[in-house]
Structure formats: C-alpha cells, structure tokens
C-alpha cells in the first residue's frame, strides 16, 4: 500500500457477486458526520484550522485503525416532532441537503449534532437562538450523553428536557457520500463543518475509538499520502477540500459553494480487470486483477493496487 487508503480484502469478490446477480444491494441508511474545526491557539506557530479526528479501534472488523470524524446513523425519533431550532429554516435545510421534507432535514441535522455530542462531548445547542452551552461536563450531562448513546433518550427529548435550541446556524453542509452498492452495511452520509464553540472541549467519548487528535487537514492528508494514517476515500477527499482555508470561519463560509451531489463508487470491467472508481475522485481508482489472491493472515490482499 503506497498510501493510507483502506479497502477490505473481500471487496473484489463482493463486486463480482453483485455484477453477476448473486448479491443484492441493500438500501443505504442515512447518516451524518461532522468535521469539527478550531483555529490555531497562541504558540502553535502553524496557520490554518485543525480538525478533530478519531481513530477507529484497531480491533473493529470494519475499518479498524482508520481515522474518521465523529458521526453515525440517523435516529428515526429525531423527526417525530419539531425541536427548538435556530438558524436556516428546515425547508432551507431540506433544499440544501437534497431531501424531500422538513422532517427529513431535521433528522439529518439532529444526527450531526447528536453524534458530535455522543462521540466528542461537544454540543451545538444553547438556551436561546444566539447562545451556546459553554460546559457539557458533569455527572448529569454524562448521564444524558450515555442515555443518548444507548438510545434510551431521543435527541429531541434531550433538547426539550434541557430547554435547548439546536443551533443549526453553527453547522454547514459540505459533502455527501454513499457507501458502495457491494457493501453489506451502507450509509448515505452528509458531511458537515462546524467550529468548536467557545468554552467547550473535545474528548474521546466514543466506544468505537481508541484515540482522538486535533490535526490540520493538510497534515492529515500528508500523513495519508505517506501511508502513515489509514483512511477511507470520503475522509481523504474532505481533508483535501478543507486544506486551502486559513480559519474555521473561512471554511464555514465556503460551505455553500461545495457540491452536495452524492458520490457513489462505480465498478466496471476492462477486459478481465475490474476497475473500482469514485466519480470526480480519480486518486481512489483501484485496478483489481481477475485472479485476486485470497486474504493473507493479516487481512491484506496484495492484488489491490
């Protein structure tokens, strides 16, 4: 592997099974992930914002050891009633996200805010439309966070009980990627950007991560290019897209110009060779020979080039 690109060794067989009709694609579930940004602090020297990333536990079967952002699936309960809302209207969000209804838009945005709280301890909500909570530590906050993770409490119920307004104006939609059709677990994922609210701090609150880091997008992308940081294509692509911006505010300001057309992997045959590609992202193209070797003891497949 010349870079940190993560591919499961079972993909070639699954791709061929899908092409032959032996495998049926599952419907992707909706999900959201957040690229949480903070500007350089005094004494750090380098310019440009840092992004909060977590490393998936190396023991996990799917993408173990890969770096990603806080995120997860939509909870169906997040659109069961209107929540306290600040920022662009739900209809505006529906148009931006490319969904049909205000309820769908609320569910996706709620997922982004909820997952950031569940996995990083950062909450994009406040008592009023122009305030944000400054401290989410303490036993009562942790009890609520754990209840959210266990799905014992809906995010809408959490906001209502605490009298909080979801600050959708602190988020901006950046990209949308859909898990390839040959994967057994598929997600239709919206990527958001947000700035770390003043007074709040991130922490590793996820049971699926073994470490978290603040790292500049360019440094993370360089680590991937050197093969030092393992990542999936959507993560690398969004890091590269963030690289030009000097502050978190600049990145948020540029979000409206980002294309939210869904990116979905395509597989095609060129002679006997299988070619896997992501439209608009040529760097991730993979050429898979017809006789791919079975996975080795360490789970790698040397014929993925």
UniProtKB/TrEMBL annotation:
Domain Nudix hydrolase positions: 27-237
PROSITE patterns: NUDIX
GO molecular function: hydrolase activity
Name by which UniProt lists this protein: NUDIX hydrolase
Keywords for the protein's UniProt record, in alphabetical order: Hydrolase, Magnesium, Manganese, Metal-binding
Obligatory cofactor(s): Mg(2+); Mn(2+)
Species per Swiss-Prot/TrEMBL record: Streptomyces mutomycini
Start and end residues of each stretch annotated as Disordered: 284-305
InterPro entries: NUDIX_hydrolase-like_dom_sf, NUDIX_hydrolase_dom, NUDT19
Gene3D superfamilies: Nucleoside Triphosphate Pyrophosphohydrolase (3.90.79.10)
Coiled coil feature spans: none
Superkingdom in the source lineage: Bacteria
């Amino acid at each position: 592997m010349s870079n940190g690109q993560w591919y499961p060794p079972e993909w070639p067989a699954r791709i061929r099974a899908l092409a032959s009709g032996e495998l049926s694609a599952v419907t992707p579930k909706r999900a959201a992930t957040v690229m949480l940004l903070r500007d350089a602090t005094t004494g750090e020297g380098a310019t440009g914002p840092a992004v909060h990333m977590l490393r998936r536990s190396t023991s996990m079967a799917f993408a173990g050891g890969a770096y990603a952002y806080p995120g997860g699936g939509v909870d169906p309960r997040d659109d069961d009633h209107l929540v306290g809302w600040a920022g662009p209207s739900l209809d505006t969000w529906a148009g931006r996200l490319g969904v049909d209804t205000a309820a769908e838009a609320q569910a996706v945005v709620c997922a982004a805010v909820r997952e950031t709280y569940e996995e990083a301890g950062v909450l994009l909500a406040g008592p009023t439309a122009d305030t944000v909570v400054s401290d989410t530590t303490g036993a009562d906050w942790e009890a609520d966070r754990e209840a959210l993770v266990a799905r014992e409490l809906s995010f809408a119920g959490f906001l209502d009980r605490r009298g909080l307004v979801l600050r959708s104006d602190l988020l901006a939609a950046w990209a949308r990627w859909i898990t390839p059709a040959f994967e057994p677990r598929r997600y239709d994922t919206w990527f958001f950007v947000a700035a770390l609210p003043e007074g709040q701090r991130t922490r590793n609150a996820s049971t699926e991560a073994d470490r978290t880091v603040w790292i500049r997008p360019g440094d993370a992308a360089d680590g991937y290019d050197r093969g030092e940081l393992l990542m999936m294509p959507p993560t690398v692509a969004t890091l590269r897209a963030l690289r030009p911006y000097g502050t978190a505010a600049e990145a948020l300001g540029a979000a409206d110009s980002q294309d939210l057309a869904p990116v979905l992997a395509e597989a095609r045959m060129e002679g006997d060779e299988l070619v896997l590609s992501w439209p608009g992202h040529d760097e991730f193209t993979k050429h898979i020979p017809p006789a791919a070797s079975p996975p080795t003891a360490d789970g790698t497949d040397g014929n993925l080039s």
